[in-house]
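Input:
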Amino acid sequence: MTTTQAAPRPGTTAAQTEPAVRMRGLLKRYGGRAVVDGLDLEVARGEVFALLGPNGAGKTTTIEILEGVRKRDGGEVRVLGVDPAVGGRAWRARLGVVSQGEGAAQELSVREILDHFAGYHATPRPTAELIAAVGLEEKAGTRVSRLSGGQRRRLAVALGVQGRPELVFLDEPTTGMDPVARRQFWELIRGLRADGATVLLTTHYLDEAAELADRVGVVAEGRLVDVAPPGELGAELRRAATVRWTEDGAVREVRTESPAAVLRDLLAGPGDVPGLTVTRPTLEDVYLSLVAAASTARTAAEGDPR
Amino acid sequence: MTAVLPVTPAPRPAPPSAARIAVRRVGLELRLFFRERQQVVFSFAYPVIMLVIFAAVLGGDERPGDVPFTHYFLAGIAATGIMLTSFQAIGTSIATERENGQLERLQLLGTPPVAYFAGKAGQVLVTTAAQLALLLPLARYAYDVPMPADLQHWLTFGWVAVLGALAGTVLGVAVSALRGSAASVTTGISAVAIVLQFFSGVFFGFTELPSWMQQTAALLPLKWLTQGMRSAFLPEQAAAFEVAGSWEHGRTALVLAAWVIIGAVICARTFRWRRAT
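Output:
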């Protein structure tokens, strides 16, 4: 008997072929209020995924549930094929986490901290390499208490990738970084992706999401309101263009899905059209509309208390 | 920067054992201890300064059973020192580490809790030994306080010190779980430590204390640690001036061991890597 089915690559198991992160109907309540309210999300292996959302949208809670440090109240979750609620050390060793604090003793230097925590990993990245990758060479001998906010974030990033993780969680990694450090961080993330790691990050910076992410998910009111590549987010919202021009000293504005037709009419006239512009919504415009819509929907669903 | 950070291909080797991490933790804890001036001053200088001050003021006094004050006081201040390097140092450091996210980092790394506690225990062992190595020679050579008379008395000193430090360590871990900021936990621990010293016969002869104070202290470990230390340092006939007329070694071991167990149970039930939300 012959088989035409391709044999799986040696060493490949079902757990390795399933998505890096998969959740269905994730639920988390604090004091009766649902902070995460039925979140569905899938992150493919090797993907860089950005979670966007206003403060309090449930991003950090979601990440913490995925990291296995917070219990969920409902839903199904698999991270690297394992339920985070019962993930052991071997599972944890495959994750890297950059949380909002660096969580290191203030009296130790950058190098001392990295050298110490190297001992918690089976195959840590060399300290010097990490320090260079996050651009802390000048501060290697400086104690954490003397680092600036942005330098602390870089140390947190170094600690997060020290164990050569397959999946990296980054919770607002670039908050407080200067523009140079942010670009350096972007390079680091691209490097991780090039090496096959999966990255799930939260951020408030839309340019960062556009720059780094293969896909962006917008979370508002504990739900995923849209998920798409950064250039395609809010496809319907994006179709609307705004045509502006000046006529009789006043600014005129037309919102339309077919700006070409409007332009044709305008240009058919005899004279010049001063101040003529056609604009499409930016990622930020789309994001703000999505978040506002989710907030309105929730208020409507809960009924007006007044 | 892109090519220099390769991801290890599966399968990855098992993470280092709890024992190996524990060894690293001990080294780290000691390094941190000696870098925190406040800790060093409190744990090391306090007993020494107290000995110097009280010897200067009350050096001529005698305690129950014609025991010179400095002889009686050394036992008490050695016990206090053990409480400081165990109970106080551990309680305050864990509360602080929890508050500033260091424990969260350990949790995210999958650190076995036993490795973390072993690091703390190693710190207590070394700092307690160092502190006693400072205090005892000072008492011996500057104040002529006799050391334990023979091997048997040194053994008594040994087991009392170890059991006391162990009880202090687990109780330190236990109180670190109290709600509130690290600063308020630290203040609370200091207050308890100071009051306990007065109740437990460190500064005053224990039998001179009001009976309600004695009875309260008898439920707590420091009184027994102090009494055990007296049994190691003072001559046999001084036992007649204890509350029970003897050193009560059996009861001392029992009470201290009971506190070790109580503390361990509380730790197991209340220890959290993160602050309660």
